[in-house]
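Protocol step 4 of 5: obtain the predicted structure for the target chain.
Materials: sequence only (see below). No template structures provided, no constraints applied. The aim of this step is simply to have a reference model before the mutagenesis design in step 5. Sequence pasted as it appears in the construct record:
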Amino acid sequence: MPLSQLLAAVRANPQAVSIPNQWSQGRACFGGLMAALLYEAMCARVSAERPVRSLAITFVAPAEPQVPISFEVDVLREGKAVVSLLGRAVQKGAVVTLIQGSFGAFRDSAIDVPSLPAVEMKSLEESDELHYVEGMTPEYIRFLAMRWGVGALPFTNTPSRQMGGWMRLRGDVQKEPATEAHLLALVDAWPPAVLPYLSRPAAGSTLTWTIEFVQPMPAFSTHDWVRYCAEVEHARDGYGHTAAGVWTAEGKLLALSRQTVTVFA
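Step 4 output (structure tokens):
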């Protein structure tokens, strides 16, 4: 089931969405998809004049594939410009994913500071793609394409602080304007940026994730490649702290991301 169908499912019936095994990561549903679906449910409670500004995401527990999930949203406060929401993904009576979101209307301002330039990386053609291999890569890789343009692949004993490259939806997807929901799925598809430091496979996952979106978001489609680069700021005692940027292929800033990751090695 492609991403577009799952987003449509949560819009149609947020109280009972089952995620197929094809979107799994080990024994759990892919975290980026959980964030995308919960965000989509949150959007239904906010007018288009108040686009998302930031999301604070906590993966409380693994969500099981093939088991119905309820995506619940509360409006915490609605001010003149900003709406604060709390979203919960609930499975078997327990919260598995939590998002606190801030959605805000545009304001007149005398401040206008351009973003820093995109990180330099190999061209799309020079970058090596992570192919979907059944039983070896996470199942969700069949839907999401990534090409390494910065740093190294996981478990290659390469102590590089930066990791990233190019990403987009994979396969025969309908061409349509991409949204923040698509970016959530794409950004979390990348493995923790600390994994190239290891010389053998080990489990790693996102614990908490904060992502901020540039508005109005530069336009790109579900067929377009976008750039991603994460930098390891600190890692020790089984936890890593990374900061990342996301840009269009032309280098326009789309989002800024921070993650606390756990590594079992």
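Step 4 remarks: The chain has a mean pLDDT of 95. The CA atoms of residues 115 and 253 lie 7 Å apart.
Proceed to step 5.
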